[in-house]
Amino acid sequence: MKVLIVEDDPLHRSYLHEAVNAALPECDTVIEAENGTAGEKLARDHKSAHIVMDLQMANRNGIEAARTIWKERPETRILFWSNYSDEAYVRGVSRIVPDGAAYGYVLKSASDERLKLALRSIFIESQCVIDREVRGLQQKSLGQTNGFTDSEYEILVDIALGLTDRAIAKRRSLSLRSVQNRLQQLYDKLDVYQSAGDDHEDGRFNLRARAVTVAFLRKLLNYSALERAEAELQEWLEGK
Amino acid sequence: MKVLIVEDDPLHRSYLHEAVNAALPECDTVIEAENGTAGEKLARDHKSAHIVMDLQMANRNGIEAARTIWKERPETRILFWSNYSDEAYVRGVSRIVPDGAAYGYVLKSASDERLKLALRSIFIESQCVIDREVRGLQQKSLGQTNGFTDSEYEILVDIALGLTDRAIAKRRSLSLRSVQNRLQQLYDKLDVYQSAGDDHEDGRFNLRARAVTVAFLRKLLNYSALERAEAELQEWLEGK
DNA sequence: CGCCGTCTTGCGTAAACCCGCAGCTTGTTG
DNA sequence: CAACAAGCTGCGGGTTTACGCAAGACGGCG
Prior knowledge:
Two copies of one chain form a homodimer.
Chain A: E1 2-6, H1 10-23, E2 29-33, H2 36-46, E3 50-54, H3 62-72, E4 77-82, H4 87-96, E5 103-107, H5 112-123, E6 129-130, H6 132-142, H7 150-161, H8 165-172, H9 176-190, H10 207-217, H11 223-238
Parallel strand pairs in A: 1-2, 1-3, 3-4, 4-5, 5-6
The first copy, chain A, binds a DNA duplex through helix 9.
Keywords (chains A, B): DNA-binding, Phosphoprotein
Protein name (chains A, B): Response regulator transcription factor
Domain Response regulatory (chains A, B): 2-123
């Protein structure tokens, strides 16, 4: 058995290396990549079926890399190992995991024990292992309670990118008014109307900009989500 | 000599611990904190004069912590050790360093050697050591070439927070029109007018929102900068 | 001191945005 | 099938933005 480790940070990389050796005696080879691009290439060359992947790497982030890897070989097992459980990441990951694929999401703050368990469960037993904290987000995100619909999230991204209502309408094939409806829905859920109890009418917010910031502060959005969205936008712009 | 290490990640923390021991034989005690809040407390209790500080920690980030520490004891020497050289961080740090204080900014990607050298230079020789890459940003940021004025940066933050023109005017004691002037200046510098060469008039951007995103993608802003700005905003709102 | 560049401010306009009202299309449920 | 909730869309109007034009204000500088 071969395991590929894709991770920026040399310290974490060698820690992972040890953890893999300790948890998987049946693993005879460990290879390492220090960014997403290299990771993709190695995965292809070695036909890796077992990958431990960091999200958030400078060069090309884990989600991008995982996406192309899964596109080529959907049965690949990937354990995501990340510092954060931002909703943006969680959403990003669950958007790209192929049907029935075995994968995992473990936080870096987890104990050695938990990491090793996750490694065995995913790579040997083909089980999905999702960190409890992350799991919570996923639930909330899928169930509607307090969570955001896909269309709400979509429009959030669109205004975050700086599109006008008209442009959004065109992109999503909606009428202007519908776009604005969704915006209002979004403003509602983000609770963007004034900072709590402040009744001065002068301290008003620009809802559109405020919504984006609030989303950021709540980790609904983060840098990597923006980056991806921007790339998609550019693509769309190309295609007229 | 006593050294205080403030760092989230246990791996990095122990790495730093070793590096300090190796670089500074004159150091007899090393204490560790795993977030900003704990760091501040330990610094106070131990009257630490030598600190290695991570930026970007979950609980309370390094800039906040450094600010309060420096407020109490401005002669404290702090070495910032960070993964990133976002302009937002660099700007954040240089805004809080007291006159004549010895401090350093080293990237985590630097070699062992460089880290050790920096430790000695700052703690023993009271020199400032700024990573070359970071230095570049600082220059650009101070010299006007291609960089952003303080007032431009200020208004960038204000729209990022989601304030209306009117609110900004009030906050910064300007007329509405002046605020809008500065905005235009900002839009200019960020080059927010249409995505390169696209002459379809439909693909237009909402300049205000777009500016924020572009700033984010260029790392002029980041999460921690937003967080701080938001806190300041709330303070201001309190004070009517 | 007069010239000049930078910054501030007011006026005015066209466009974009926020949003209530109301008619329609759907999918769901008893 | 009737009833109802949920989402799409057009209309209309009050606000906010973006920005050209032009008149001061302030700070060098020859």
